[in-house]
Amino acid sequence: MKILALTSIRSDYDLLSPLYALLDKDESIDFRLLVSGAHLSREFGYTIDQIVKDGFEILLEIETLIHSDSLKSRLKTASLLLQNCIDIVAHFAPDVLLYAGDREDVMVGALLGTYLNIPTIHFYGGDHEVDGHQDTYIRHATSKLSSLHFVSTLEHKQRLLALGESEKRIFNIGSISLDRLIGVKNIRIDDSFMKKIPKNFSLLIFHPIFGEDSAFVFENILKVLIQKRIFAFVSYPNTDPGYNEINSVIKKYEHVEQFIFYKNLERDLFLNIFSRCDFIIGNSSSGIYEAASFKIPAINVGLRQLGRYADRNVIFCGNSFQEIANAIDTASSKEFLESLKDLKNPYGDGNSARKAYELIKQIDFKSMATKSEDPLKVNCNEK
Q: Given a cut of 50, is residue 199 above it in pLDDT?
């Protein structure tokens, strides 16, 4: 069996890397990766290094990322990926294509599967945000073009059913990203940064979103952390339009001793920081998905992630200085922290990669390649 997975950024790679490891170890599977986008950008950390370190075979590297920081850039990036990968994907002729999430490359993967008649699996479909971000539209559109769906929750499955997808094509396996949290190697954070790190610190991950003054919001978060004297590890933003404005704010604060800014961290180091922080703040999906496994508060600031299912550790707040400050006070309170002691992550138990792997070994993909079901009738007929 030949399996090809598409990955364009560290975030989608981490969503599926535990599954990649299982597929790669199976001698009956010829597993390859098609690598593009931010993975090949020095500005965004050149994260292909992590893929090489993990030992996966790369079918093709395609430099696609348009560094224009505009609304047009992601669409142009997607067009470069599609144009430059069609022939080699057709030549490799995989038995199944894998892709995860809601960025532009998943739509490319779905188009490849549709027009080259290759069965596809879309991971993390059925999720929904009400923030108006394009990712939600792309996620649902990709689901309609995909052969199979490996989802994280029952709610996600129900949403795909509402979109007219056949129940026989949907498998609720939980979030594979949580598998990365099992058995993390203990690392001395001080040694990694060659400086004394305070016992109490936070993790800030904030990405731009259209319709919000992201630089203003990001700077407000930094100002609140400074006022409250909270040390923070601060991530650079992703490739979404507006990242340059956030980078400008980082330059303004990069010499503040209270902050460590980073573009990319080795996986175990990042997870050590994540698991030991007092809280995660910003608007990353990590606060929605992974933070509950560590039983830590997650403060989601502003528009991004609104509408996603979140457990009681997540605090949604507005983007003003005072709203952010109030949210940190709540997250730091004894009562709030006590309420998280028995928290169980609603997105999975850390065994999702194994579930996905076993399904991939069992499914007759050829029988699932043609998608002829009528959305008006399909689920009525199956009941």
A: yes
Report the DSSP beta bridge partners of residue 232: 202, 259
> Phi and psi for 209 in degrees, rounded to 5?
-145, 135
Q: What is the pLDDT of residue 74?
A: 85
Contact status, residue 1 vs residue 92, Cβ threshold 8 Å: no
Angle at 237 between CA 252 and CA 244, to 5 degrees: 55
- Give the tens place of pLDDT for each residue, 24-39: 999 999 999 999 999 9
Identical fold for domains 2-181+350-382 and 189-338, yes or no, is yes
DSSP secondary structure code for residue 181 in this structure? G
- For 292, phi then psi, to 5°, come to -65, -30
Which of 195, 200, 191, 206 lies closest to 266, judged by CA?
Answer: 191
Do the strands 314-317 and 259-262 form a parallel or antiparallel pair, or are they unpaired?
unpaired
Distance CA 106, CA 118 (A): 14
The pLDDT of residue 383 is above 50: no
Query: What does residue 141 show for φ and ψ, rounded to 5 degrees?
Result: -65, -40
- Find out whether 202 and 298 touch, Cβ atoms under 8 Å: no
Give domain limits for the chain: 2-181+350-382, 189-338
Indicate if the pLDDT at residue 381 is higher than 60: no
**Above 60 in pLDDT, residue 13?**
yes
DSSP string, 240-290: STTHHHHHHHHHHHTT-TTEEEES---HHHHHHHHHHSSEEEES-HHHHHT
The residue with tokens 């030949």 is 2
Where do we find the tokens 């923030």? 131
For 131, other C-beta atoms within 10 Å of its C-beta total 18
Angle between helix 134-145 and 104-116 (nearest 10): 20
Q: pLDDT value at position 378?
A: 82
Q: Are 279 and 296 in contact (CB under 8 A)?
A: yes
Q: Please classify residue 368 by burial: count the beta carbons closer than 10 Å to its beta carbon, then call 0-12 exposed, 13-18 middle and 19+ buried.
A: middle
Task: Estimate to the nearest angstrom the gap between the alpha carbon of 147 and the chain centroid.
Answer: 21
- Burial class of residue 360 in the structure, from the number of CB atoms within 10 Å of its CB (0-12 exposed, 13-18 middle, 19+ buried): buried
Q: Could you please state the CATH topology (level 3) that the domain comprising 189-338 is classified under.
A: Rossmann fold (3.40.50)
Please give the class, per CATH, of domain 2-181+350-382.
alpha beta
